[in-house]
Amino acid sequence: MLNFDKAGGLVAAIAQDADTGEVLMLAWMNREAFEETLRTGRAVYFSRSRNKLWRKGEESGHVQQVREIYIDCDADTVLLKVHQIGGAACHEGYKSCFFRKLQAGELHIVGQRVFDPKQVYGQ
Predict the structure, then answer these.
(1) 120: helix, coil or strand?
(2) Short-list 62, 60, 67, 2, CA closest to 33
(3) Which CATH number fits domain 11-91: 3.10.20.810, 3.90.10.10, 3.90.25.10, 3.40.30.10?
């Protein structure tokens, strides 16, 4: 179903709001993360920096309930259409990880913070 061999055991995984179509984030999945996502109906990713499974929302409570799963033509990218619990997918407190827009060579914040990451993650 998916080709995990192309990128060293990982496939790109895009999370999209199932209701609005807004792209929430890009992450990575290994076979185990994909299978757990299928089994539980909640998004599970593979954290490259921590080298382990990352169950979205395990710290923040902002889980992603998977509504639909699409696989691209090359079988190396997953599109998850999700319901984002808690209103924010981004660890910086924004609904989407794509809260900055490049305009005239400068980055501008275009999103609104949904939560304070210091309160959620204790940083």
Answers:
(1) helix
(2) 2
(3) 3.10.20.810
Domain coordinates in residue numbering, the chain = 11-91
Which pair of tokens denotes residue 33? 């993360």
What's this model's pTM, rounded to 2 decimal places?
0.91
DSSP type of residue 40: H
CA dist 66 and 94 (Å) reads: 19
- Secondary structure E strands in 41-76: 44-47, 52-55, 64-71
What is the average pLDDT score of the chain? 95
At 123, is the pLDDT very low, low, confident or very high (cuts 50, 70, 90)? low
Q: What is the pLDDT of residue 87?
A: 87
According to the model, what pLDDT value does residue 1 have?
87
